[in-house]
Amino acid sequence: MGANQDLFDATYGTDTGGISPVWDLDTDSANARYGERYQAIPADELDAALSFLHKDWSAFTFVDLGCGKGRALIAASQHGFARVIGVEFAKSLVDIAIKNSKIAGVRVEVRNEDAAQFEFPEGDIIVFMFNPFRETVMRQVMCNLARHQGKLYLLYYRPEQSAVIDERTDFLAKIGQIPTAPGFCVWQGVAGACEGCLERC
Length: 201
Prior knowledge:
globular
């Protein structure tokens, strides 16, 4: 995986690699204790996952919760999304992600926000996560996501909190593991299935 990361940064001239432990991140979020370290996803695995879904992404917004230095944002930008949004609670990583996106020449939005407080944009979205936080925050994110109107895909890499998502059958249907990118699990929003689901939050 290290070689892949080196190749990505060598290709774009960016600095998206390495590991940033939670204790080293600059955030005043009360949810910092539920965060996980930043580590960049291998871009080829994200590409494989997005390609496997065989969707025209031109009407979708790609949302990366815990976007870190922005590697997934840059990789997603190659798939024709209408918008690409990164959410990150560490200001230093936000600054790096913005710099990296400019170096790579891609248009993305990077927001210095706590994922638990993030309001998902209207319209069709795909939400990407690389194990960014623990159960407490994941439950809040699921409640926020239950309010969303429009088509929805949830793409989760190294899904350590998948059990929390599996509980939300009121608005999500599990597609399962992606054969071409087995580190991923994916769920799809169920249209009209969420009546009363906010009562669970």
